F-box/RNI/FBD-like domain protein
Amino acid sequence: MILGKKQKNSTPQKVIDEQPDPDRISCLPGHVIDQILTYLQIRDAVRTSVLSRKWRNKWNTLPNLVFDRNCVAAIDDQLVIERKLLKIVDHVLLLHSGPINMFKFYDEHLIGESFLSDIDRWILHLTRSSIKELVLKFWIAGYYKIPWCLFSCQSLHHLKLHWCCLKPPTTFEGFKRLKSLDLNLVTVAQDAFENLISGCPLLEKLKLIEVDGFTQINIRAPNLKFLEIDGEYEGINFDNTFQLAVVVIDLWWDFNLQSSNQGGSRESSNMLKIFDHLPHIQSLVIESNFLKYLAAGVLPVKLPTPCIYLSYLSLCINFDNLKEISAALCLLRSSPNLRKLEIFSWNEARASPFTPAAYCWEDIFSAPAMPIQVRHVAIDGIFGTNLELDFIKFLLLYSPMLEKMTLKPVESFTPELVRGLIRFKRASGEAEVIWEDSSLHNDYLVIDN
């Protein structure tokens, strides 16, 4: 019997059912998804709703909402863009659920007044949502009048308004939780402004950029720490602002204003009036001709109470004005812990270099020596006049802690000017004087004794 070959048993192969990798986007924790959405434009955040079921309704719980023209596809028709932007805001607010902490609306283009009713409606909705931060920045033919409903919103912590008109109701008593207020190109009456500031007991940061409607700035804010003022006013009064640490003032002041007679009175001193309320000042920037305002009245040689916390000082000085020079010296003598000094030189009528000075510096140099503790000095806008050089000479002579002085000319330096700087005595043996000039090969020149 012929035996055939033994056939192998054919065992069916085991089929392995390979499961697809889990959807990593869907598996992200909720707080991670929330964090991702905060970095996206509203338009992109809404688009994430198609990613998965878990993402579908995430965008409409975003607590921070920012709307600008980036939310709309770029097209040439500005009116169409504007309408789409307003429609997007309406759509998001309609479907939004949960609290809205921040709402920002930016539009750098001029919008029609017909859309202002939409903005009124948004503000009413936001005040009912316990909004904490509100930023409105847009342009219209006139000022946008803030609706009264906003003044009843006591949840506000931060408020920034641009090109608006503030007319609070007579019953308005302030924003009790407001910590920062930024008014840019805003109009508000004198009494309304003062009531607004004094009615914000927690206010820590205040910015006033070309605010219209009043000429005198009166500020009473016991917790204010940062102040920036830019505009044309007749004067500034501080009351109970003892926590102010950072002050930036870019103010144009007319010395001849009739209403500023108090500032020019011989019996008064703007310097004392201002610094009596700034005992904790740490950083001070004085631009335009505000130093001229501080110099009005009787100038002390130094302040009765020194600015012991002041470490940074920036001054804009008219070197043709002896009073401004004296005001600057008063501040320098009154700042025992000053570390950095920046000066921008400007003159109403430039004197020619090396012409006789308009006043006598011998009187200043003959005064009792008061050391200045500054370590770093930068002087910009130098024309090389005798007035400027005398001030540089003074700083070098009475700054024993000076480490570095940087001088930036408006025009190319001359050999005579360099030789003059070399001859200046220095109280600090470590003082390095650097002359920065774009005409130099290395853009700077180190001047040694």
